[in-house]
Specification:
With about 475 residues, the chain is of the alpha/beta class. A 7-stranded mixed sheet has the order 5-11-10-9-8-6-7, sandwiched between helices. The radius of gyration is 25 Å and the shape is globular.
Length: about 475
C-alpha cells in the first residue's frame, strides 16, 4: 500500500504563518524543508490541492501554484489521476556541472556564487537617479564610453587611491564580465599564451578558451603568491597577457603585498606582458590591513589595465563595470564593444554615479555585514565540519576550504541533494584540478550560512568524505 499523508497531518507539520507573503512560495519552501530534513519521507503521497487548501484555509490556486513550484524543482512527482508523491531531485539536474545557467530561486541555498545583497543606500541612489533621469532622454541614449558623470566618479576614486586618472582613461562596461571579454578579445587570439592564476575566476578561463588562447596556469599556494613562480611562467611561456586578482583574490581571499606588487609589475615590464588586473573585490576589506597601492600606481608604460565592478561593493543587478587604461585603449574598446551592446544602460550608470558619492558608507556597511557572516561561517564549519581547513581572509567574500581528500565534486553533488548548491574547486581550475577544495562564500546572511553548513554536514558521505573528523582550521 502507498504511504500517504492527510491534509490535516501535513498542515500541522508545515506551520506556515497565515500572513506569509507570497504564501505559495513560503508554502513550497516549507514542504521542501520538510523533505530535506527527513520529516517528510520520500515517496509519500501528499494530499490533493483541494484538501490541503481547506486544511490551511487558503485558496486552491495557492496550493496548486506551490505544488507546481515543487514539481519544477524536483521535490514532487505527479501522475494524472493518481496524485503526487514527495521526491528528491536528481543531483545531476541541480546544476553542479553547469552552475551559471541555473534558475533564480530554485530552492537550493546559493553557496555557489559570491554575490552580496544590495546595500541600504541603493534605494536612495535609485530615487536620486530617477529625479534627473528625464534630462538624459533628450539625447540618443547611447554613449559607448559611458556617461561623463560616472567616468569622472570612477576616475576620482582612482585618484583617491593614489593613481592619477583622467575620465578619458575610463570606459564603462556592462559588468566586469564584459570588460574581461572585451580585453581578452583585443589582446588574446588563437594559440596565444595567457597566464592565469590557479585557482582563479572561472569566467576569465571561459573567455580565454572562447578565444582559443593557450592557458598558462600558475598555482597560488595556501600562503599566497610566490612571485618567482609567476615571473618564471611569464618568461618560459612568453605570455603577452596575464590575468591577475591581487586584491582579495577570488576564490582564495589573498591580498597581495606591496613588494610582490612591485615585483609583478617589474616582471611584466621585463617580459613585455600586459597585466589585466581584476579589482572587483578591492573595496571589500573586513579587517584593518591597510590599503596596498593599486598595481596601476606602479605602471610607467601603460601595461597595467584595471578592471572594476559595482557588483560586490554595491549590487550585481546593476550590471555596471569599467576599465581603466590609456585613452587610446579606451577608444579601441569603445569601437570593439559597439558590435556587442553599443553602451551600458543610462539609468544604472546614474545610480552608480550617485553611489560613488557615498562610497565610504557602503564600504563600512559591507565590512560589518561580511565580517558577521564570515564569523558565522567559520563557527559553523568548526562545529559541523572540523576536518575542513582554511585560512581566514582579511577581506573579499569567500573561504577557500581544503577538504581531507580530493572529493569536491562528489561533495557538491551530495550537498545538492540536501538543498545546497556548492562551488567545487575544479570550477576555478584549468584542467579539472583542485578537487581537494571548495569555495564557500560568506556573502549570505549568517542564518543562511549556518543552515547551509548544517545541511552539508548531513549529506550522504561520498567516497572519502568524513565531515566530523576533528582537525583545527588554520587561521
Amino acid at each position: 500500500m502507498d504511504r500517504y499523508l492527510s491534509a490535516p497531518q501535513l498542515a500541522r507539520l508545515l506551520e506556515v504563518p497565515p500572513d506569509a507573503r507570497p504564501y505559495y512560495k513560503v508554502l513550497a519552501e516549507a514542504v521542501r524543508g520538510l523533505i530535506l530534513d527527513g520529516r517528510l519521507p520520500v515517496r509519500v503521497r501528499v494530499p490533493a490541492e483541494r484538501h490541503l487548501a481547506e486544511a490551511l484555509g487558503v485558496s486552491r490556486t495557492t496550493v496548486t501554484t506551490a505544488y507546481d513550484r515543487l514539481r519544477e524543482q524536483g521535490y514532487l512527482e505527479s501522475r494524472q489521476g493518481s496524485g503526487s508523491w514527495t521526491a528528491l531531485p536528481d543531483p545531476g539536474t541541480l546544476g553542479a556541472d553547469n552552475p551559471w545557467i541555473t534558475p533564480d530561486h530554485d530552492g537550493l541555498l546559493p553557496l555557489h556564487t559570491a554575490a552580496p545583497p544590495a546595500p541600504a543606500l541603493l534605494g536612495e541612489a535609485i530615487a536620486e537617479a530617477g529625479r534627473g533621469y528625464h534630462r538624459y532622454a533628450l539625447g540618443m541614449g547611447y554613449d559607448p564610453i559611458g556617461l561623463p558623470a560616472l567616468r569622472e566618479a570612477i576616475a576620482g576614486r582612482y585618484r583617491e587611491r593614489g593613481v592619477a586618472t583622467r575620465p578619458d582613461q575610463i570606459i564603462v562596461t556592462t559588468g566586469a564580465q564584459q570588460a574581461i571579454h572585451l580585453l581578452m578579445t583585443l589582446f588574446a587570439g588563437p594559440g596565444d599564451p595567457v597566464l592565469v592564476e590557479s585557482p582563479t575566476y572561472p569566467h576569465a578561463i571561459d573567455v580565454a578558451r572562447m578565444r582559443g588562447a593557450r592557458l598558462v596556469p600558475v598555482g597560488i599556494p595556501e600562503d599566497g603568491w610566490h612571485l618567482d613562480l609567476v615571473t618564471c611562467a611569464m618568461r618560459q611561456s612568453a605570455a603577452r597577457l596575464a590575468y591577475v586578482i591581487p586584491d582579495f583574490h577570488n576564490p582564495t581571499g589573498h591580498l597581495m603585498g606591496d613588494e610582490d606588487r612591485a615585483e609583478l609589475v617589474a616582471a611584466a615590464r621585463r617580459y613585455d606582458t600586459t597585466l589585466l588586473v581584476d579589482e572587483t573585490w578591492a573595496e571589500t576589506a573586513i579587517d584593518d590591513v591597510g590599503s596596498p597601492p593599486p598595481l596601476a600606481s606602479l605602471d610607467t608604460d601603460g601595461r597595467v589595465i584595471s578592471i572594476g565592478s559595482a557588483s560586490k561593493l554595491w549590487w550585481g543587478g546593476l550590471r555596471i563595470g569599467w576599465v581603466r587604461g590609456t585613452a587610446a585603449l579606451v577608444r579601441r574598446l569603445a569601437m570593439l564593444r559597439a558590435a556587442v551592446d553599443i553602451a551600458s544602460p543610462v539609468f544604472e550608470q546614474l545610480v552608480v554615479a550617485h553611489l560613488f558619492g557615498r562610497i565610504e558608507e557602503t564600504r563600512e556597511e559591507r565590512r560589518r555585514a561580511l565580517g558577521d557572516s564570515r564569523s558565522a561561517l567559520i563557527a559553523a564549519l568548526r562545529e559541523e565540519l572540523p576536518s575542513w581547513s582554511f585560512t581566514t581572509p582579511s577581506g573579499g567574500g569567500s573561504l577557500w576550504v581544503r577538504l581531507d581528500s580530493p572529493v569536491a565534486s562528489a561533495v557538491a553533488e551530495a550537498a545538492a541533494s540536501r538543498g545546497v548548491r556548492l562551488a567545487p574547486g575544479p570550477w576555478f581550475g584549468v584542467e579539472g584540478t583542485l578537487e581537494r577544495y571548495l569555495r564557500l562564500p560568506f556573502t549570505q546572511p549568517a542564518q543562511i550560512l549556518e543552515e547551509a553548513v548544517r545541511r552539508i554536514a548531513g549529506s550522504p558521505a561520498p567516497y572519502g568524505y568524513r565531515p566530523r573528523t576533528p582537525l583545527t582550521p588554520t587561521l
